[in-house]
Structures are given as C-alpha cells and as structure tokens.
Amino acid sequence: MTEPFSFRLLATDGAARQGEISTPRGIIRTPAFMPVATLGSIKGVGWPDVKASGADIVLGNTYHLMLRPGAERVAEQGGLHTFINWPHPILTDSGGFQVMSLSALRKVTENSVTFRSHIDGTKFELTPERAIEIQALLGSDIAMQLDECIRLPASREDVARAMKLSLWWAERSKRAFNNAPGRALFGIVQGGDVPELRVESALALADIGFQGYAIGGLAVGEPQEVMLAMIEATMPHLPAGRPHYLMGVGTPDDLIEAVARGIDMFDCVMPTRNGRHGQAFTRHGPINLSNARHANDPRPLDETSDCPAARDYSRAYLHHLVKANEAMGATLLSTVNLFYYQHLMAGIRAAIAEGRFDAFRAATKEGWARGDIPPL
Q1: In 3-state terms, what secondary structure has residue 158?
Q2: Where are the chain's structural domains?
Q3: How confident is the model over 31-59, as pLDDT tens digits?
Q4: For 101-114, how does the pLDDT look when each residue is reduced to its tens digit (9 = 90+)?
Q5: Is the peptide bond before 250 cis (omega within 30 degrees of 0)?
Q6: Is 193 an active-site residue?
Q7: Residue 93 bears catalytic tag
C-alpha cells in the first residue's frame, strides 16, 4: 500500500538526485522548483500559466496569510487549495523568516517570538505550536517547523543560540504536528556559516525524525561559495531517503550547483520579482529588457521556448512595455521566467535520469556565458 506522503529516488548521478514526492494531491517531480505565492497568488501570473509552466507545487507564506486574510478565514473558505483554486500540492513556510526580516519590533524567547504586524502594528505571538496550527488551518500538504533565521554575517554565539533554539522549536513542532495523515512536516537545519553547527543541527533533526529536511538560513547575504560550502557540510548528515529542500534559493546557477550537491527542492521569488523589474531569464542568460538595444529588435526572447510569452512577442514590444511601466510587461516577463525555471528543472531531471548531469551543467553554463547573440 502506498504511503499518503512518500519520497522515492529514481536515479542518481554523482550527488545529484532525481525522484518524486507522492502526496494525496499529486506527484512532485524532483528536483523541483516551487513558485512563491506569498499571499496566495503568484504576483502578476494566473494559475493556468503557473501550471502550464510545469510547476507541480507552489509555496504559500504563513506569516503573510496569518496577517491577511487570516488562517481561520482561509479555513472557513475550505482551505488554501480551494481559496486560491490551486488543487495541486502546496508547501507553507513557518513564518519565522518573515518575522525576523519584516517586523521592526520583535522579541524572541525560548517559548515564542512576539512581533508587531508590518501592516498595522497589531501585536502577535507565534509559538511553534501556533505555527503548526496555522499551517493546518491553511491545509498545506507540506508544513515547516518554526525556526529562528538570522542574517549573515553574525557572531558564532548568535548563530549557535539561534540553531539551538530552532532545534527546541523543531521538537515542539513535531509534537504539535502529530503525524497528520496525508501531510508532511519538514525540519529546518540552521547554523549560519559555521560548518560544525550545521552538522550538529542536521544530526539532531535526523534524530527527531521528519518526512523531509530543509536547509535554512542561507541566501541571506553570504557569497555563493559560502552557501555551497554549508550545503556540502550538511548533506552527509541528512537521511538520504528523505527530500532535501534549500529554502529561498535562488538564481539558475544556484539551483544547478545545489542540485549537484544533492538538493531536491527550491523556492524563490526571483522569477517574478526580476520579471517585474524587466529582467528575463533565458537559455542565453539573463536579458534586461529595459536596455535601449532592444528597442528596435524584432526577435522574440527565445524562438525555441515552449513559453508563448518568450516565443510570440518581440523584444521591441517587451522593451516598450517595460519602459512604459505597463502591467502586461511584468506579467509577460514573470511568465517567461517561471517557464524558464521549470524548463531548467526538467532538463536537470532528464540529465540525471540519463547519467549526463555534468555535461548538462557544463552546456547550460556555456549557454549563459555565451550570452544573447545580437542581431546582424
């Protein structure tokens, strides 16, 4: 009998892994990129295009949804899947990162974090138990433990304190979750840029036991080489038979390098955020449509793309939309970027399955380095 939530590896190529996560709401092909639906929507992009891009799962933000419209209200509407009309898998983060990054007034204790809403100043208290309760009300398929994420650089003392507090909150989160049928809870490795603290966190979380393991507290200002070094330090100590999720990452190069080190899942706002600012991600590398050189260019972004926005509109038109600050420009470029990220992940999965991941990685990077060939 198939488990309601399970993960199986289908192929490996070096440390890179191809597999699938089974949930009651569908299969998640891994490595997977999760578009970020912060407030229950992918900014500027409709759900049909999100699904058409190849996304199997999206991420909702517990902090933002608890403030507006409120978890209880979402539950009254039938849960987040019904509320937003996305019947496929959803992962919700715990809200810890947003509490730390958006709340000017906050206090962290062993029991909880108290903070004031960035919207209207209302005071809230978030405990590990309340974070799990909110995610249950939202009805997400994958929930995350509450953790404390601190920005780097930070002192070793601060990093160690936050890591140990996150472990205590992991234990409480698991007790509160209580193995809800058909849903999964992931633990989060913390430890900043200190390898031995990362190892300590990973080993302790493995002892507690979760259906998946995330690496948090990276992509918070440190160089890419530091992020990759922390992944390398952590991965040998996480259970191989569980999904490995790198939170909040990142650029296409970050994704391909993290996959090479054993990561299975990603999320990032970059595809839509950069799209709103006129940047398209393509097999030629990033293209800034606000640049004047595109003003008279009749070519599409990529005539080979399966994304209509990349294939059917001229660069001149996209440049015009960006310069005129037209909403359609943001929508088209965000769509282009979502499709490209999913295209990259599909290529990675196929390459791992066929034992040619290193060649795929080299060819992809060569295409980015070669860049966009200007018209004759």
Answers
A1: helix
A2: 6-30+61-267, 275-368
A3: 999 999 999 999 999 999 999 999 999 99
A4: 765 678 889 999 98
A5: yes
A6: no
A7: yes
Question: In angstroms, rounded to a whole number, what is the distance separating the alpha carbons of residues 167 and 104?
Answer: 24
Of the residues 13, 49, 56, 93, only one is catalytic, namely 93
Using DSSP's 3-state secondary structure scheme, residue 231 falls into helix
Is there a contact between 168 and 161 (Cβ–Cβ < 8 Å)? Answer: no
H/E segment holding residue 329: helix 327-353
The secondary structure element, H or E, covering residue 335 is helix 327-353
Cβ neighbour number for residue 288 with a 10 Å cutoff? 14
Structural contact between residues 313 and 332, judged by C-beta atoms closer than 8 angstroms: yes
Catalytic residue among 267, 297, 302, 372: 267
So what's the pLDDT on residue 1? 37
User: Looking at the domain that runs over 6-30+61-267, which CATH code has it been given?
Assistant: 3.20.20.105
Q: What is the Cα Rg of the chain in Å?
A: 20
What average pLDDT does the segment 56-72 reach?
96
| 147-193 per-position pLDDT tens digit | 998 888 899 999 999 999 999 999 999 999 988 889 999 999 999 99
- The single-letter code of the amino acid at 38 is T
- At 375 the three-state DSSP class reads coil
Query: Nearest-CA neighbor of 42 among 77, 90, 102?
Result: 90
Express each pLDDT in 210-252 by its tens digit.
999 999 999 888 999 999 999 999 999 999 999 999 999 999 9
E-strand ranges in the chain read: 6-13, 16-23, 26-30, 32-37, 58-60, 90-92, 106-108, 113-116, 123-126, 142-144, 184-189, 212-215, 244-246, 265-268, 279-282, 285-288
